[in-house]
Amino acid sequence: MSLVVRMVRGVLAVLALPVALLALWWVTSADSTTYYLPPLSEILSIFDDVWLHSTRLADDVLPSVLRLLIGFLVAVLLGVGLGVLIGSSRALRAFCEPVLEFLRAIPPPVLIPVLMLFAGIGDSMKVLVVVSGAVWPILLNTVEGVRAVDEVLTETCRCYGIRGPARLWHLVVRSASPQIVTGMRQGLSIGIILMVISEMFAASNGLGFTIIGFQRSFAVTEMWTGILLLGLLGYLLALLMRVFERRVLHWYFGLRQAQRGGSR
């Protein structure tokens, strides 16, 4: 199969369902006379004016994306660092497990009033809200990934005297990386949701602030453009995460493909 054919098939696989859903939305809403559910054609007709031909892209969208990325990166650093530490020690894992189960059971939106008391109502609070939710899937997946490191590889490293940072990076982190990336993908989805929720509390800009502002002023069509933009942003970030996953885990996908080929 040629490279061009594989690329075309990949693009079709990525875009087929979103395009089909948009087409279904267009058709089913074409004759809508409900004020709260305007036709998709009407939403798209004002999309440019609301977001692209105004200052909202710089004033609202970019700050939201920046807060999300900062919070997500902090969550990755915390989740992977603590996950490797906890997963590498059975005693520490047993000691921390009850606390981790208790903390992750608390819905992050409930923490927003508490975080506002300590961090104020600025960007720091919104970043902390993203971290408070995104860190858990990364942390827990990292712990499980570290626990599942192959014992044969562990003994091999011991026999060859591979210790310290080299063992940590080439054995532990590399073996756990498929589950770490899975946790990152889950954490990113949670972070997007929390980004919007945090901007609905005592904010002066951001996607969540703008969408709730449209809702309160009964600008329903403009509100739907914000929801559509939020969906497009989440879809774009998911695609970037998939590219990152393929780049970082190319050895893992190659190994799986080789195993499938060998089993035939």
Mean pLDDT, nearest integer? 87
CATH domain class: Mainly Alpha
Total tally of structural domains: 1
Proportion of residues in helical segments: over 70%
In the CATH hierarchy, the architecture is Orthogonal Bundle
Report the end-to-end length measured between terminal Cα atoms: 19 Å
**CATH H-level name... which superfamily?**
MetI-like
Globally, the shape reads flat
User: What percent of residues are in strands?
Assistant: under 5%
Q: What is the structural class?
A: mainly alpha
| Radius of gyration based on Cα positions | 22 Å
CATH topology heading: MetI-like fold
| Poorly predicted regions | none
Q: How many strand segments? A: 0
Specify the biggest β-sheet: none
> How many DSSP helices?
11
SSE pattern, N- to C-terminal:
HHHHHHHHHHH
